[in-house]
Every structure is written in C-alpha cells, then in structure tokens.
Design brief:
Helices cover 32% and strands 25% of the residues. With 321 residues, the protein is α+β, with helices and mostly antiparallel strands. The strands form 3 sheets. Strands 8-10-7-11-9-12 form a 6-stranded mixed sheet, with helices on both faces. Strands 3-6-4-5 form a 4-stranded mixed sheet. Strand 4, helix 3 and strand 5 form a beta-alpha-beta unit. The protein binds adenosine-5'-diphosphate and magnesium ion (MG). The site of adenosine-5'-diphosphate has 13 residues, from helix 1, strand 4 and strand 5.
C-alpha cells in the first residue's frame, strides 16, 4: 500500500464532516473557520510505543485513547472540541491494525463531533501524535491559575482504576476476572470529561485534567495559583475494586499513578449552588479546600497527616528517588 492509498483508505473516510472545515484532508494544509469572537484552544499529546502503551495493545483502544487524552486537555480548558490532526509513525502498513485503530479513534470522534482535518504519516517505530483544536469564549476559558483561598476542590468520576488495571496487566498484582473487567475500560478507553469542562465555565476558578496523578496535577494548580491546599483521603472517590487495592497496597494508585483523565477543579463558595445544579453533579466529589499556606497537606482517615511515597508521573524525573 502506498502512503496515498493508506491516507485515502483510512483517514479520508471518516464519520464527521463539519461545516467549519473549508478544506480538510487532501490539500497541503487544512483550511478552517474558527467562530468569531472565540479563542482557539490547541493541544497535542504524543503516545510512544513502550513508553505510553504496551507494544501489543489492542489497536481499537489505542485509537480511542490517543484522541481521548487530547480531548481531555481541551475539556480542562473548558473548550468545545472541533478538529484534530493525526501524526502517525508506523512500522508497516498493516491494514487490519489500521482498520481497528481508526475504528476506535473515529467512534470517539463521532461521539464528540470532532473532524480529522490532516496529519502526516511516516514509517518508523510505532508512535502517535494527535493535535486537537477547540473553541472557548475568551472570558470563559478555564485555567490552572485561578484558585483562591477558601475555594473547594473537586474531582469528577473516580480515581485509580486505570493504575490498578495497568498493574494487573504488567503482572504486578492479580485481579479476579470480574475485577479486571470492571477497571480495564478506565485504562484502555478513558472518557474525556468534555461536557463537564464546558459546564464548568463561569463556575470553576481553576481546572486541570488528571493525567499524571492527583497530587502532581493538583500541585500544578497550587503552583500556578500561588496557594496551598488540604485534601482528605476519605473523600477521594474510588471504585470498589480500587478501594480493595488501596487496603492492600496503599493510596498511590489513586493519588500518583495517573492515567485517570478526570478533571480536578476549584469552586468558590458562591458558585457551589450553580455547581450542584449541573446534571452530572452526582459524579462530582469535593475532596478538600484551597488554603493560603503554600503546599499540599493530605489528611488520612484518622485525621493524621499522610506522606505519599511517590507523588506523580514525570518522564524526566530521576529514577533513583
Ligand atoms: P505533504 O507532503 O504536502 O505534507 P502529505 O502527503 O503528507 O502532504 O499528506 C497529504 C494529505 O493527507 C494532507 O492533507 C495531510 O494533512 C493528510 N494526511 C497525511 N497523513 C495523515 C494522517 N495520518 N491523518 C490524517 N491526514 C493525513
Ligand atoms: Mg507531509
């Protein structure tokens, strides 16, 4: 298969066709019409085989996840996703693999009405770079930097399932078949919290998506907002499978191992009424409060202070710590 056949067969055929795309795949550059008066939110994420995913990963899941992590970044800005580009490095043009990869990617694209508008394709060790674009009204953009003393800290969904699933897959612990089935989807096909991010416009003072672990990512909010926080372990939402894991192995999966793709955000007292009226308010959990004193204080189940052994994923951190 030539590069052009590959592009025509797999990428030019896709379920979403948006009116704001004047030219998509097929020319030297895409021509796009951002809505007047809105900011363009732009993000990219790179997934490298052996670093971000296991080389034998199911290609459907990989296609889903490569797009999902980008939509999660847009969600954290309060942006509405619109377009994406796909940069693909493939060891070979394996039609079956590509069919499944595109299936996972385009199913998610359809769910959020995002159109693939271009990219590049090359031969080499498997890697996927996606760049996603979205819109947000200037005054409504959510940032990491707006948290204020007294704001409450929330997270969407539950934390830690992806980490527990990964440990099982790596052979570091054994889950029963049912337990693994309950958490595997959180690792393989995370749901980007796009609807939640957009609904938090005007309500949240700061937002981030949790990709490197709650402690690391909340840490970014604290640093950028120049504040501190207190978080209560017994308020951190976890699934039954993750809770059983925590009893045996401690809190790292939910606090520091990452891959959650939930949103962490802060809300001032006066916006809590509006927050609680959101249709998905039942899936939001208050885990603590912003404080003036810098640093993050974690309170354990007995009211004592908890010191994490490992605080979050960092590709360039020294391995010996
Ligand atoms: P050029 O050599 O001018 O950069 P290419 O031959 O790389 O163009 O790409 C031709 C068209 O196919 C362009 O519109 C490009 O955006 C698109 N394209 C190439 N690879 C991909 C891909 N992996 N996903 C989506 N579109 C792609
Ligand atoms: Mg090119």
């Amino acid at each position: 298969m030539t590069e052009f056949e590959l592009i025509r067969t797999f990428f030019a055929r896709q379920p979403v066709s948006r009116a704001d795309v004047a030219a998509g795949i097929g020319d030297d550059a895409a021509l796009l019409r951002p809505p007047a008066g809105q900011l363009l939110a732009v993000t990219s994420d790179l997934l490298v085989s052996g670093v971000h995913f296991l080389p034998d990963v199911e290609p459907r899941s990989l296609g889903h996840k490569a797009l999902a992590v980008n939509l999660s970044d847009l969600a954290a800005m309060g942006a509405e996703p619109a377009w994406f580009l796909l940069n693909l490095v493939l060891p070979e043009a394996d039609a079956q693999w590509l069919e499944r990869f595109c299936g996972g990617m385009f199913d998610l694209a359809r769910a959020y009405n995002v159109q693939l508008v271009g990219g590049d394709t090359s031969r080499g060790p498997l890697a996927i770079g996606i760049e996603a674009h979205g819109f947000v009204p200037e005054a409504a953009a959510l940032r990491r930097s707006g948290a204020k003393t007294g704001d409450r800290i929330y997270v969407t969904g539950t934390l830690g399932d992806a980490a527990v699933a990964l440990r099982h897959r790596l052979g570091k612990q054994r889950l029963s078949e049912d337990d693994f089935a309950a958490v595997a989807g959180r690792l393989d096909r995370p749901t980007p919290r796009v609807r939640e991010g957009m609904a938090l416009r005007g309500i949240a003072t700061s937002t981030i998506d949790i990709s490197d672990g709650l402690l690391a990512d909340l840490g970014h909010i604290l640093e950028m907002s120049r504040v501190g926080a207190r978080v209560f372990l017994d308020k951190i939402p976890v699934s039954p499978v993750c809770r059983a894991h925590i009893k045996k192995f401690g809190w790292e999966a939910a606090l520091a191992m990452g891959d959650d793709y939930e949103l962490c955000f802060t809300v001032p007292q006066q916006n809590i009424g509006a927050l609680e009226k959101l249709p998905f308010a039942g899936g939001l959990h208050c885990i603590g409060e912003i404080e003036a004193e810098l640093g993050l204080r974690i309170v354990d189940e007995t009211g004592g202070s908890y010191r994490p052994a490992f605080t979050g994923h960092d590709h360039f951190a020294e391995q010996t710590k």
